[in-house]
Amino acid sequence: MITWVAFGALLLAQQQEDPVESRVQRYKEQLNLTDEQLPKIREIVKKQLEDMRAVLTDEQKTRLDSGGRGNRGGNNNQGNNQGNGPGGLAFRGGWLPATNDLKTSVGLTDDQVTKLNEIRDAVRQEMRTFFQNRGRGNGQNLGEQWTAFQEKSKEETTKKILAILTDEQKPKIEEAVKAFAAAQPATPSQDGNRGRGGSSLDERVARMMENLKIDDAKEADAVKGLVRKVMEVMERLETAQRESRAKIDEAQKNKDLSDDAVGERITEILKHHRDLEKELSSARKELTEVVTNRQELELLRRGILR
Length: 306
Hints:
Blueprint: H1 4-13, H2 19-31, H3 38-53, H4 58-65, H5 78-82, H6 99-107, H7 110-132, H8 142-163, H9 169-183, H10 201-212, H11 217-253, H12 259-290, H13 293-301
Helix pairs in contact: 1-7, 2-3, 4-12, 6-9, 7-8, 10-11, 11-12
């Protein structure tokens, strides 16, 4: 049974693809920004994040990209306002890579970046409208409505994106979307071992190694073990995020929980996420230390390194 907390997380998902877009959309809603102001605000936010990243450690960069989650204590409510989802948790998802990643892998011009961000803005608004109007309509259950909406939205969005690309860029974005899907942590399904696109962890690791094109067998084995380690932690983090949604849903429904008890649940959830993020940062650092610059570039492109 699909819960509307899960739908809410999916509604936020595309905002989480890009830390710049996450902040721009938050400012847009908080300040009622006009369409004319958005491109300027986007450039300002991008410059701010670039300046911040220049002085941060790898672990801090990971936390920044995942929504800037920090310590929470007392009755400070800033965590709720600055997080990206219920209780300040950032939820990942979506089928389209971040705009900044596409700019690099596809070779987008500044004008194309602007148009792509406008397309993303329109998709977010459509998702909000769907969420607000859930349960109305043609007699379909909510799950069927959501599936139909996703399929239609992806088809229409793909057409709009292809329309702003050159013939040379179109195959590149198709490859980028496939690579992005392959790199995503697995999600549970009926057989318990398959993830996005029906791929197991072993299959996704194998595809990643094919992309790295390492001829030396010993080197390939060493890199493969670390690639698997990173992807396995990414998968565990994705699982933790799903479980957190269930815990949040449960806490919201339990009216008998005291405010202190709710705070303890939040602290527990955030600590678990921070521990996994620290483990992921460490695994990525290990991988970075054994690959060549060209291999690192490929891993960055595929979303394994950040």
